[in-house]
Amino acid sequence: MEPNKGLVSALFLFFLLHATMASPTPKPHIKPRSPPHHPCRHLTFYFHDIIFNGKNFKNATAAIVGSPPWSNRTILAGQSHFGNLVVFDDPITLDNNLHSAPVGRAQGFYIYDRKDIFTAWLGFSFVFNSTQHRGSINFAGADPLMNKTRDISVIGGTGDFFMTRGVATLETDAFEGEVYFRLRVDIKLYECW
Amino acid sequence: MEPNKGLVSALFLFFLLHATMASPTPKPHIKPRSPPHHPCRHLTFYFHDIIFNGKNFKNATAAIVGSPPWSNRTILAGQSHFGNLVVFDDPITLDNNLHSAPVGRAQGFYIYDRKDIFTAWLGFSFVFNSTQHRGSINFAGADPLMNKTRDISVIGGTGDFFMTRGVATLETDAFEGEVYFRLRVDIKLYECW
Amino acid sequence: MEPNKGLVSALFLFFLLHATMASPTPKPHIKPRSPPHHPCRHLTFYFHDIIFNGKNFKNATAAIVGSPPWSNRTILAGQSHFGNLVVFDDPITLDNNLHSAPVGRAQGFYIYDRKDIFTAWLGFSFVFNSTQHRGSINFAGADPLMNKTRDISVIGGTGDFFMTRGVATLETDAFEGEVYFRLRVDIKLYECW
């Protein structure tokens, strides 16, 4: 038996059985709770954010550029930083060491969007230009940052990551006062070209 | 003659004639004007935005955090609010009642981007954590808010809305001065996993 | 035979046959370096950005609405404009002439995100409402604007560009001081509905 014929037979049998099961209530919108297959690429990185606080200009990789009326742009606002817009250009590393050789830059913004708990909305890119990766991955989504892990969307990519899509799981790996934090990003891509 | 054969013959004749007409500019890219199939999921929600105006801190769900040089962050700017960046964390309800039990939060930002008419650019998420929905839907797009309805893109999702895509139709359902508005969001998802 | 058992049997047969085909080197993650096919649509436009500088309100199509603590919103900040958030509503033209009849508006924001070189993060839409195009194309991504060309993602669309995806190549076509620039945008869409 040729492989293709076997495949076709199995599929035919599958659909035949499926049709025979004839559930009385039609289910036009099948929605599995878990993704139907494994990621086509799976990457893990860390990135490091040092917020400008009026004294650390040289080391800062991020700055507050928007703030609510009751606050300024040098100190993160009270009320869970609600209304602070932060721009960043953070080094990406393969391990959790800030001083490891960066493999790219995480560039974009986050904006604290809730008065009562810490949560943010993110729009940013991972920009790679190394021997290993060339191109960018674009992300967007809500980051309820008090949760141990939270998922955001991979909305596109360029270069090595042409047109990719998927989900990235964020985890706060370290947090030092209101100046430094480090995120672990677990990227699972389900559309690879 | 069977219908299918007729159809095939007609199509063949059509392409033959088409080929004979030999248009000098080839048209390799067929682009249907309407979506080819029904949504795999169709959801409707309302969300409610109460903008901080200097006096309503407790009830406010949104705040102006960026403004043009000719304005401040307590009052929406003249010139169609051009340049006002607003952050929000708005309750999502199933009906148009602000006091209904919220089923999630709409979190993100809008930014008024035109001097002569009211129009905005939106980046936000619907974040669900109820028995009915768990996960998030991410949106982006232009909102020419003087139009009765306007479409933005569903650019991704997580959890129950893993990797989803589609279009959301916004409609301003209520508008009270410059403090409160309510949007009806009709979400049509065409990629469900 | 119970339905589930039939399903399981069919699936088992399917996987068995699949396993029998047994390619010697497993290739779970096929990742071609170049896109596998031609764009289904290819469009080229120009858009023109005139930044408000305190004196050109009438002509300005863009304004600084966020800035770092060390700067204001009338003049682009030093340090590669790091932290400046700019909102825009720019005319789109078919050629490189600012005074050509616009075919749409480019609306959204860019945010300078790096201290040492000029680079920005973009979120915006092309909004068309002409006889030729109706609908919108949504973009997001990093713009290392000192590079001759750079790619960002097309993350969605509406109307004629329903659910589209692809890549847009940006090229700075003209740059006059810190007030005017013109971008050439080469849009390659790989998902057309």
Characteristic key phrases:
homotrimer; 193 residues; mainly beta; 8-stranded antiparallel β-barrel; 10% helix; globular
Write the layout of secondary structure elements.
Three copies of one chain form a homotrimer.
Chain A: H1 3-21, E1 41-50, E2 62-66, E3 85-93, E4 104-112, E5 120-129, E6 134-143, E7 149-159, E8 165-176, E9 180-191
Antiparallel strand pairs in A: 1-3, 1-9, 2-3, 3-4, 4-5, 5-6, 6-7, 7-8, 8-9
Describe what you observe in this structure.
3 copies of one chain form a homotrimer. In chain A, 10% of the residues lie in helices and 46% in strands. The first copy, chain A, has 193 residues and is mainly beta. The first copy, chain A, is globular. The relative contact order of chain A is 0.16. At the A-C interface, helix 1, strand 2, strand 3, strand 4 and strand 5 of A face helix 1, strand 6, strand 7 and strand 8 of C.
Q: Name the overall outline of chain A.
A: globular
Helix content of chain A: under 10%
Which chain pair shows the most residues in contact? A-C, 51 and 52 residues
What is the mean predicted local confidence, pLDDT of chain A?
85
Quick structural summary:
The structure is a homotrimer of 193-residue chains. The first copy, chain A, is 10% helix and 46% strand.
